[in-house]
């Protein structure tokens, strides 16, 4: 079978498209013929050696995929050969065949195509865990999503709306704000491309805090910062950007607001705790990597809720780019350079 292989840490251009031995499922394992693979920023970190999860070489990157069950090992009862499934794993999904633990796979509905299934779980579960489980976002609250044009950001926009919140999308380009609006954002603001100096941070903090509540329906692309007005602060902030944007975001929280640190696309932030103390606010780290959170079969309530939203059209991944598996480095480069909107997908020759 073909797979993308990393034999040494370094630039993604060093990845190889190689033949590997076909895997054989053991006890409690499921062998899946992969049709589509979701590309995530964590894949870039893994091959560049920046992931906190240590792996032994050779590494096959990738944490999610969708396909058809080929074989099951002894003891597997929840799925059987021929069924369509999505799966998530620590690594290994950039391949034509992948072994998953039984609790790492979940049957997908008939109306969900493979590309949507391959990009559905990781982003949606991250946003669901952050907003539903940790922040406990309530109807009528105001949610700010930083990085709203990316996969997890778009999922957060949609889940925020499904939970009854008013959602403000924050992104670095007009194109990404248009996309967030199409997926339900009530308003939007375009922040400057960083890194921001101290003056830029202060300006953004003032703009965010001053413009947090808007009862009108202004288009998120009519103005840069001013589509959101009459501020009192955001109840919840979903921040997948980090870097020099984090402290301005913290300063725009409401009293007892909840700031969710979800990722560091712009770098790991260094922030003052002053805004947290004076607002009685909470900072939460969001790392849905624990097995009970990461694995679909071990979080059936969340999966059923998210699939219910999918069935109603409330939670759908946006597929913006599709590449053949052999061109994985090109696909990953879109994420590494922060050029991707929505989700990027790899497809194998097995997809037909």
TrEMBL record:
Domain spans labelled Enoyl reductase (ER) = 10-346
Q: Give the signal peptide as a residue range, or say none if absent.
A: none
SUPFAM superfamilies in UniProt: GroES-like (SSF50129), NAD(P)-binding Rossmann-fold domains (SSF51735)
Q: Which Pfam families match?
A: ADH_N (PF08240), ADH_zinc_N_2 (PF13602)
- SMART domains (alphabetical): PKS_ER
Protein name, please? Oxidoreductase
Q: Which organism is it from?
A: Acidocella aquatica
């Amino acid at each position: 079978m073909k797979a993308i292989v990393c034999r040494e840490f370094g630039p993604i251009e060093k990845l190889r498209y190689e033949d590997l031995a076909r895997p054989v499922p053991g006890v409690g394992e499921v062998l899946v013929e992969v049709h589509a693979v979701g590309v995530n920023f964590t894949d870039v970190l893994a091959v560049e050696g920046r992931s906190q999860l240590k792996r032994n070489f050779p590494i096959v990157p990738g944490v999610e995929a969708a396909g058809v069950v080929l074989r099951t090992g002894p003891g597997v009862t929840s799925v059987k050969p021929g069924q369509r499934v999505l799966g998530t794993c620590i690594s290994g999904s950039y391949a034509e065949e992948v072994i998953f633990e039984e609790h790492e796979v979940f049957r997908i509905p008939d109306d969900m195509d493979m590309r949507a299934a391959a990009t559905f779980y990781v982003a949606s579960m991250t946003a669901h865990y952050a907003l539903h489980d940790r922040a406990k976002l309530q109807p009528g609250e105001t949610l700010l999503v930083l990085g709203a044009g990316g996969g997890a950001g778009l999922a957060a926009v949609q889940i925020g709306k499904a939970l009854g919140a008013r959602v403000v999308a924050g992104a670095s380009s007009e194109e990404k704000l248009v996309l967030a609006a199409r997926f339900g954002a009530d308003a939007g603001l375009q922040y400057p491309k960083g890194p921001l100096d101290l003056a830029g941070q202060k300006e953004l903090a003032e703009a965010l805090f001053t413009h947090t509540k808007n009862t009108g329906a202004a288009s998120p692309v009519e103005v840069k910062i001013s589509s959101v007005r009459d501020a009192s602060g955001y109840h919840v902030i979903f921040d997948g950007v980090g870097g020099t944007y984090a402290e301005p975001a913290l300063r725009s929280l409401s009293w007892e607001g909840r700031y969710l640190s979800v990722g560091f696309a712009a770098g790991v932030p260094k922030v003052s705790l002053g805004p947290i103390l004076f607002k009685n606010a909470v900072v939460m780290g969001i790392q849905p990597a624990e097995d009970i959170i990461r694995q679909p079969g071990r979080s059936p309530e969340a999966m059923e809720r998210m699939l219910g939203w999918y069935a109603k059209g409330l939670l759908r991944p946006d597929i913006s780019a599709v590449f053949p598996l052999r061109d994985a480095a090109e696909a990953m480069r879109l994420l590494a350079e922060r050029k991707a909107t929505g989700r990027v997908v790899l497809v194998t020759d097995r997809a037909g």
